[in-house]
Every structure is written in structure tokens, then in C-alpha cells.
Amino acid sequence: MPSRPATLGELRKAASTGTLKRRTVKEEIRDNLIGRLRAGEILFPGIIGYDETVVPQIVNAVLSRHNFILLGLRGQAKSRILRALADLLDAEIPVVPGCEIHDDPLAPLCAACRARVRHDGDALPIAWLPREARYVEKLATPDVTIADIIGDLDPIKAARGGLQLSDELTMHYGLLPRANRGIFAINELPDLAGKIQVGLFNILQEGDVQIKGYPVRLPLDVMMVFSANPEDYTARGKIITPLKDRIGSEIRTHYPATRHEGMAITAQEAWMNRTGLDVQVPDFVREIVEEVAFQARQDARVDKRSGVSQRLPISLLENVISNAERRALISSESPVVPRVSDIYAALPAITGKFELEYEGELRGADNVAREIIRNAVGTVFGGIFAAVEYGQVGEWFDMGGTLQVEDTLAAGDLLKRTAVVQGLHDIARHSGIAANASPPLLASAVDFVLEGLYAHKKISRSEDRQYQGVEQPRRPPRAAQTESLLEREMPLAGNKKKYYN
Questions:
Q1: What residue ranges in 88-159 does DSSP mark as E strands?
Q2: How far apart are CA 381 and CA 449, in angstroms?
């Protein structure tokens, strides 16, 4: 492999012989994307569920050399996609050493670099900028100023150099000029003040900038990308129409279309490998965790404009595993196997992840979350046990059977207590666990069946975790009624006893 040019003279020679390609950023990204498409490579590793929807639109925007915006609710991988665009840049490019805007030595923009080229000529040393340094990202907030984005005049530079303020050498460059020859991303664009959005107009179209009223011709070579919630979904601000008109493509993102797509994302992102512990998460627990997000997104009490982030099932699964880990540490058992009851104990990972409508506020976040979990359990249970006859378990409770189970009960003890329920263990094996499953796995399956029967109203449960047959309803004691009224202010803790009758 030939050595890369070290001086401006060597760079000019490489450019004249075709050894070095000179392209704009958008041409560079387009060419590299074409190469990946021809090679059949994955364009955005780690992005799941967008192969047939979002990714083709991004490809079209890049092939069209467009600036583009990703519109979508929170937790839809918008920022991750924007950051992945940097992988489409060349490994490195030549720049003028020390230049704030990464000037091309063959065509410098700033006055200082032009002066250095005139002074040093072909002997000017060349630096090489890696691709990771060519991606600049800014989170839009109301306090962002035009100086932060475009730049400002620096009176100290003027005083030290004896320069007029109108001199180009007095300019202090903002983030956008510093992203020259790279990608500039703005997250949450509607939060950017309208007057700042106006400052992006000419940069996007003509490349003109005005600093403190002084016109400066600065034809930046930059690809601009943005992310935002859909304009109708935010009360914090909006994207002004002239700016939207100058953005080439508007691409809508979305939540996972299927539960299994969501499970793949959650499995990729959640922290499940606990050091020194054998963690085994049953498939039905993973499905229920993911179904919680799907149920929340369609629940009328949850604000659809705010959305339910994919971070909900990720955080929930982590918290569920932690509750199972706590139980395993207390009872000294292995492997660590989460149960459905651990999902109820993980309410703190749910209640902060959605905004409630008025009806939901009256009901209380904890109560809404419990009902969402119950619906999720019922949906998954119905799919797995659709062809399984489990009526005998409900009959056992209807006949006055009583069962008490604590959330911290070891797997062996749980299996001993539930062995008295006719057919329960046999039915639990239909949950997908192996015939020779370990006690913690079988205990998790048994817990799933009990919670599934409750979700399908085959057995009932009072607010203090007492379960009973639906044919023999009992009025909960006065203390339990009082507790349910105070539940929004005093949520139930995880270590609750469960009574099945």
C-alpha cells in the first residue's frame, strides 16, 4: 500500500494522477453506500425492524445527496441511525493541520489557511482526519444561540491582531463550520429557537453566513441531518416551514411492528449477563416483557402523542432479572430464572416510561401499569396455552383450595407448595420449557400458569395478592380495601405473599 501524502506538493501530485479522489461529503457517502449495496453488506448494524421501511428511504435520500430529517417518537433509534452514517465516510481525509474547520489543503476556505498555503506552498505539511472526528452532533435546546451553531466575532482576536471586526480572521467558528467536510446532526430540531432555525437557511441552500451583520462567504461542504418528534406531537416548538422546505427528505421512523422484532431489540440492548451468575430467561418472560410495551402503546389511558419508548422493555427486562437475582441470592439457588411475578415487582421500570391521559391520571400510574402487565400476561398466556386444557386447575381453586406463595420463595419450596394443585405442574410444562428443566425454570413456568389464569379471570386476586376461585368471590377485608385506595401513594412492595384459593 503506498504511503499517504505528507505535504501539499505530494497531495497535489496524488490528486493529479487520480490516486486521491476529491469529492464532496455527499458524493463520498453516496459512493461508499453504493459499494456496500453492491457487496451486500448490512448498512446499519444493530438497527432491527427497519429493513423494509426506514432503511430504503434513507438509502434513497443518500443516493439523492439530500439533507434529511428523521421524524418519530422517542425510543425509535433515530440518534443511533444518524451516528451510524459516519461509517459511510472515508477512513480518513487530508486537512490543513490545526484548522478549526478541517480545510481541504487543495481548496482552503478560511483566510488563515489560505495565507498558510501562500506562505508555505508545496512544503505545507498535511494532517489526516479520521472518520469518527467528522461527525458533529448537537442536542437542540432553547438556550442554543446563533453563535453556538454558526459562530461569532471574537473581539479579543481583533485586539491581539490589530484587526478590524469585519476581518474574517476575527471569526470564532460555531459547531456547524467545525463540521465542515463531515456530517452535522441536530437532535430534537423543534426545540431549536425559530431565529436559530432561520440561521440554517442559507447554509443549507447557498452556503452564505452572516456574523453580526458582516456577510461572510463560507461555502461549507457538509451533510446536515436532523431528528425530531412529529411536529403535531410536540408542544415545545415546531420546525419552521422555510427550513422544512430546504430539507431534502423527511423520513418517518416507527416502533417494532411485531413482538419478536421488539424482543430482538431488547435482547440486543438489555444488560442480562450478570457476572458470576447463570441467568436463564424463559421465552414466555421475554414475550410478556415485550408485550407490556405493545399493550401500553395501545392503551387509551396512555398518551399516544408522547409514545412508549423501546427503552421500556429494555429497562423492564433488566429490572425483572435483578428481582430474580435478588431472590436467587437470598435462597442461594442457581440458575437465576425470572418469573412473571418479578414483572409486577418491576413497576419502577414502567411507570416513568409513559405519560398518562386524564383518565389514567385518575387511575394512577401504578394501577395502570399493573393492568397493562395483566393484559400482557393474558395475551401471551392465551397464545401459548390456546390448545391446552387447564380447567382442572381452576376447579381446584373453585372447590376451596388455598395456596400461598411469597415472591421470594425459593424454587424448590414453590414447587412443593404448588404440587397439591391437581395438574398444575403438568400444564406448566406446556410453556415451552424442557422436560428435564431445572427447578427454577419449572417454578417460573408454574408461576406463569397461575398468573395467566388470573389474567384470564379463571381465578381472582385481591389487591393484597390473595387469589381465589371466581365461583366463590369473597369480599376483601377492610384493611385490604383501604390499601387499594392508598395504592397510588403507597405502591405495593415486591415481597408480597400470594394466596391462591
A1: 92-95, 127-130, 135-139, 151-153
A2: 8
* Interacting residues of 378 by C-beta distance below 8 A, sequence separation 6+: 452, 455, 456
Structural contact between residues 306 and 368, judged by C-beta atoms closer than 8 angstroms:
no
Alpha helix locations (H) across 70-145? 78-84, 111-120
Provide Rg for the chain, Cα atoms. Answer: 30
Domains of the chain, start order: 8-252 (3.40.50.300), 267-500 (no CATH)
Q: Model-level pTM?
A: 0.86
249: helix, strand or coil: strand
- Tens digit of pLDDT for each residue in 115-170? 999 999 999 999 999 999 999 999 988 888 888 888 877 777 766 777 666 666 67
Q: Which amino acid is at 340?
A: V
Query: Phi and psi (nearest 5°) for 177?
Result: -60, -30
Asked whether the beta carbons of 380 and 467 are under 8 A apart, the reply is no
C-alpha–C-alpha distance, residues 129 and 98, integer Å: 11
256-299 residue pLDDT tens:
999 999 999 999 999 999 988 999 999 999 999 999 999 999 99
